[in-house]
Amino acid sequence: MNPIFMKKGFTLVEISLVIALFFVLLSFAVPYGLRFFKVERLDGISRDLLETLRLSQAYAASQNLDSNYGVFINGDAFISFKGNSYASRSVAYDQEFAIPNGIEVSGLSEIVFYKLTGLPNQSGEIRLSSGARINVITINSQGTISLELSASLGNP
Fold first, then answer.
1. What is the C-alpha separation between 112 and 32, in angstroms, rounded?
2. H or E element: which one contains 24?
3. What is the mean pLDDT of residues 69-93?
4. CA 35/CA 39 separation, integer angstroms
5. What is the pLDDT of residue 32?
6. How does DSSP classify residue 66?
7. Quick one: which H or E segment has residue 79?
8. 138: which strand partners?
9. Mean per-residue pLDDT for 69-83?
10. CA–CA distance from 40 to each of 34, 75, 110, 116, 156 (Å)?
11. CA–CA distance from 100 to each of 28, 36, 76, 110 (Å)?
12. Average pLDDT over residues 73-83
């Protein structure tokens, strides 16, 4: 047969082999991708809460609107507020940030920073967790706010 008239293409075996290889690679990539997504989501919300705490502290220390500022944390959101407590706050100044599903928050639930000094009304920890991974925000009595990200690369 003349090679010019031969049709070129892939055999069924070659196509099946490529598809099988694709699914093997996919079975390894998907779990790592999901783990990466969960870790980044936890780290992102931890950094958002840290930034909100520091911003509330800065507003209080600079005597913005001559008021104390604070952060209230419940199971599905954290709220930055203006006032002496969450219960007696000025609602018009609230800024609410949602906490994604799958992230558990424990520890301090309401922190108020005093005007002029920026010192917190209490010290302690806020723990954010997703699976086995736990990030900890620490607030000490001197007003230092720090974030410790979990270093585990295992299951998030």
1. 39
2. helix 12-61
3. 96
4. 6
5. 83
6. G
7. strand 77-82
8. 125, 146
9. 96
10. 10, 19, 25, 35, 10
11. 26, 15, 7, 19
12. 95
pTM: 0.82
Contact 126/35 with Cβ under 8 angstroms?
no
Tokens encoding 154:
């295992």
CA separation for the pair 16, 123 (Å, rounded): 61
Residue holding tokens 């309401």? 110
Q: What is the distance, to the nearest Å, from the Cα of residue 2 to the centroid of all Cα atoms in its chain?
A: 66
Q: Give the torsion through C-alpha atoms of 10, 13, 14, 15, to 10 deg.
A: 80
Phi/psi region, residue 128 (left: phi>0; alpha: psi -120 to 50; beta: rest), is beta
Q: Which of 93, 92, 46 lies closest to 73, judged by CA? A: 46
Alpha carbon separation from 123 to 23, 24, 89, 140, 145 (Å, rounded): 51, 50, 21, 5, 10
Q: Could you tell me which of 109, 101, 113 has the C-alpha nearest to residue 45?
A: 101
Q: Which of 11-20, 45-54, 65-74 has the lowest mean pLDDT?
A: 11-20
**Which two structure tokens, joined as six digits, stand for 115?**
């005007």
The string of pLDDT tens digits covering residues 1-46 is 555 656 678 889 989 999 999 999 988 888 888 888 899 999 999 9
